Amino acid sequence: MFSFNDVIGQKEVVDHLKAEVEQGRTAHALLFTGPKGAGKLPLALALARRLCCMHPEGGEACGHCPSCRQWEKLGHPDVHFVFPIVNNKKVSDDYLPQWRNMLLENTYTDLGRWMELIEAGNTQPQIYATESDRTLRKLSLKSGQGGWRVVLVWLPERMNESCANKMLKLLEEPPSQTAFLLVSEEPERLLPTIVSRTQRISVPRIAREDMVRVLVERYGQTEEQAQSLAHRADGSFLKILELMGQGGELALCFELFTRLMRLAWQRDIRGMKAWSEQVATLGRERQKMFLEYAQRMVRENFIANFHCAEMNYMGPEERQFATRFAPFVNERNIVGMTELLSKAQEHIQQNVNPRMVFFDLILNMTVLIKLKN
What is the full DSSP assignment across 166-183? Predict the structure, then answer.
């Protein structure tokens, strides 16, 4: 586990990382970026394990040395994990049991799953300044195994300002034989000075053929099932897990979206108020996830009007709903609907009262949904 062999596809990225480490040219700070579900975190974990391995076999960790055995339980003394938490009086180490459980369950994961494990509720997870102080203290000590030390920062864009500035100083003057691996979903939110001090590793969407192969070999899907899932996932293995029922978020988003549109069409004020209050209780990360899903569904329903199956990425239930709903998404309202959902997402990110955001959203949708060609 946590090896390059476990990464789905991404051969070019894997070959590049292996070549760099074999030639002793691994940068002191790497920034992994790319679409959600492409495999940024699995790649960073595999590289970290290879750097720590005592007897590497080419570009891969041996899997047998004491270091590799410690990695199997994510307990290597020279690997330090930094990730968002919800208590500014604690640090990531206090959440290591949940972190290990999540990664041992599946390295293809996201913030929504993490928030469930730490019971974040409506609290926005952050990386606090105490984290960078703790990291600095750890790196001032000698390496436990006498080799590389690794600091893996998951979602560094969640660092607050004080933490980001302190982390910048670490990157500017890194301790010897220490690798900082930053895994970001939103690199545009990072300090430009932090980005400039890292080597960027762009991770593209997973190729469809790689998705199909893994689904057939590891998950027992038929070729036909695998092709269908890979097409709908659009290069994201997180989406694959959702589609196979290993995550319940997709069904919730679909139910909220269909109710949103039906209530907007019916102009049912009481129902609209109840809907907005329900969504307001979900927590901000799940609210943003729903709004992303709703924007995708609006686009998919608009495209469905062109009757081109290859351009359609909806599942059976979504397609069934689209047979009735797609005609209501047209040239007159597609831009307005998308902008309305995008604006709501922006307001949620800015911590605007969610009840106001979602009630305003559904009220405005009642006007747009009635616009016809």
Answer: HHHHHHHSPPTTEEEEEE
